[in-house]
């Protein structure tokens, strides 16, 4: 889904409250502020609060006014998180990682989002900006095509967060495909560096996607009672897609190893060819070097010392030797 920005006069971040709204049950929503949240009841419609989990007022509200247990609030406000799902006394906590689509950020630096719901409210907290909540808010406020119930909102948040992973994996596959189609030993150092970068990205993505797949597997196998059949089916599809993403990441890593081996083989082959040529040259000139060394000794009795044609005769002998060596090497298929 393309990233969309929302320009609305009622969308004002207020003391850690990035936005809050109530769903109208028809795909739209109405903005709320802190005062409206304090007065909210079930009869006002499903409530969605999206907050910065580090802001002091948000921390105070989650701990004292949200009605959540200490275990749940600790999980929602934790600094370091891994993808997981667990049931609190009143609702379900889901902690996931989404692709970092912020400017100048690497996609594999995945951003945590914390979700809680009991079927009437959906509370989401983040530390770094995530595009998914804003995109869903655009559907609610501008397009009136957003989720109609809290379970549907809960499911759509999870699905959209995981959908963005596919684009990052596709980018890695395209980069790897470009490397595979343009292997050149003259650019081996650059290509090996790019290949290492791709592998590091794949490893970083897999580190979060694997536990995320397990977390969603738990949610699919033991869905909360308030989640409707459609949302359960969609979560099952999301879980299956995550499994496919893991398989694609494994394939990227394996392809990267194959490309690395290809580069190493090409470098080895080029080195062997060079060594082979040097060996042939050495073999050709070894007899000639022996002859010149033998006749270059400075002692009496050397043949041809008094003959004015001895040097040219010796050159002719070496040429004949060279021709014979080349002939023998060709017969042996060394050349």
Short description:
Pfam families: CorA. Its main location: membrane. The chain is of the alpha+beta class and 335 residues long.
Please give the structural blueprint.
Blueprint lengths: L16 E7 L5 E3 L2 H6 L7 E6 L3 H9 L5 H8 L6 E4 L4 E7 L12 E7 L3 E6 L4 H13 L6 H32 L6 H34 L7 H67 L14 H22 L4
Parallel strand pairs: 3-7
Antiparallel strand pairs: 1-2, 1-3, 4-5, 5-6, 6-7
Helix pairs in contact: 5-6, 5-7, 6-7, 7-8
Overview of the molecule:
Mean pLDDT is 86; it is low at 1-5. With 335 residues, this protein is α+β, with helices and mostly antiparallel strands. It contains eight helices and seven strands. The longest helix is centred in the C-terminal third of the chain and has 67 residues, at 229-295. A hairpin with a 3-residue loop joins strand 6 and strand 7 (121-126). The protein has a seven-stranded mixed β-sheet, sandwiched between helices. This is Zinc transporter ZntB.
């Amino acid at each position: 889904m393309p990233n969309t920005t929302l320009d609305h006069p009622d969308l004002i971040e207020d003391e850690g409250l990035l936005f809050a709204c109530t769903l109208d049950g028809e795909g739209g929503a109405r903005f709320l502020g802190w005062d409206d949240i304090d007065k909210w009841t079930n009869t006002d419609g499903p409530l969605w609060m999206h907050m910065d989990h580090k802001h002091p007022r948000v921390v105070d509200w989650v701990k004292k006014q949200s009605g959540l247990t200490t275990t749940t609030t600790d999980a929602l406000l934790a600094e370091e998180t891994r993808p997981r799902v667990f049931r609190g006394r009143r609702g379900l906590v889901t902690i996931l990682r989404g692709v970092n689509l912020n400017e100048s950020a690497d996609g594999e630096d995945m951003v945590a989002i914390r979700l809680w719901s009991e079927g009437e409210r959906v509370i989401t907290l983040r530390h770094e900006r995530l595009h998914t909540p804003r995109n869903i808010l655009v559907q609610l406020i501008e397009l009136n095509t957003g989720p109609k119930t809290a379970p549907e909102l809960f499911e759509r948040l999870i699905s959209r967060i995981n959908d963005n992973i596919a684009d990052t994996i596709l980018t890695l596959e395209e980069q790897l495909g470009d490397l595979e189609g343009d292997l050149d030993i003259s650019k081996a150092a650059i290509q090996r560096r790019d290949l290492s970068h791709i592998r590091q990205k794949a490893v970083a993505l897999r580190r979060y996607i694997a536990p995320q797949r397990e977390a969603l597997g738990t949610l699919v196998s033991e869905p909360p009672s308030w989640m409707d059949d459609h949302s359960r089916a969609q979560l099952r599809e999301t879980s299956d897609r995550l499994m496919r993403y893991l398989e694609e990441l494994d394939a990227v890593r394996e392809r990267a190893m194959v490309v690395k081996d290809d580069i190493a083989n090409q470098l080895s082959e080029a080195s062997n060819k060079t060594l082979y040529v040097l060996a042939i040259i050495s073999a050709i000139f070894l007899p000639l070097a022996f002859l010149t060394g033998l006749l270059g000794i400075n002692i009496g009795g050397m043949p041809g010392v008094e003959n004015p044609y001895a040097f040219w005769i010796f050159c002719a002998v070496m040429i004949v030797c060279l021709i014979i060596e080349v002939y023998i090497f060709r017969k042996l298929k060394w050349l």
